[in-house]
Amino acid sequence: MMVPPPPPNVPTISALMQTSHESLLNGVILDYLSKPDLERLRTRLQDSLNKEKNSLAEHQSSMEEKQRRATQFESLFKEGVVSRKELEAAKKDFSEVDTKGKELALRVSEVEGDLTRVEKQLAKFKNEKPTNKTIAAPAPKKSAPAAKRS
């Protein structure tokens, strides 16, 4: 007795939506997603990109303030107004904020790359011609007239 193979495991958009962006498109073969799933994924990525860009912009202002403070503390340390410990704390704060800023910028570029991949896959759908061809049933054969008996 022959047993049929199990059905293929095709990723669905609902499974993708439950994950964070970091693993959103890791290993996903976009060729297997339907057009509506790709459109939903594009919308999700656009929202994620906007959120990440806003977060990066907010972080930039915080980073500039921490950098200004660290620079100011250097001059105040030289004058003897602040201690070395305060100067090192200010530099450490700036270093942490700078690292987080680089991570945010990397995340923005990753989301942009994923969005580009989805856009390219959607473009393939636009370039494809529909393949739903109806096949007409063969016309019935006309039988030769029966010979008359006399």
Could you explain the architecture of this structure?
The chain is an all-alpha fold. It has helices spanning 13-17, 35-79, 84-127. The protein has a domain at 34-120. The chain is built from three helices and no strands. Helix 2 runs antiparallel to helix 3 (84-127). The model has no long low-confidence stretch (mean pLDDT 80).
Could you give a quick summary of the protein structure above?
By secondary structure, the protein is mainly alpha-helical. The protein is built from 3 helices and no strands.
Which helices and strands, and how do they pair?
Elements: H1 13-17, H2 35-79, H3 84-127
Helix pairs in contact: 2-3
Number of helices, counting only DSSP H or I runs of 4 residues or more: 3
The largest pleated sheet is described as:
none
**Helix/strand class:** mainly alpha
- The H/E string reads HHH
Percent helix, as a range, is 55-70%
Distance between the termini: 59 Å
Shape: rod-shaped
Q: Percent of residues in beta strands? A: under 5%
- Mean pLDDT over all positions: 80
Rg (CA only): 31 Å
Count of strand segments: 0
Spans of at least 5 consecutive residues whose pLDDT stays below 50 are none
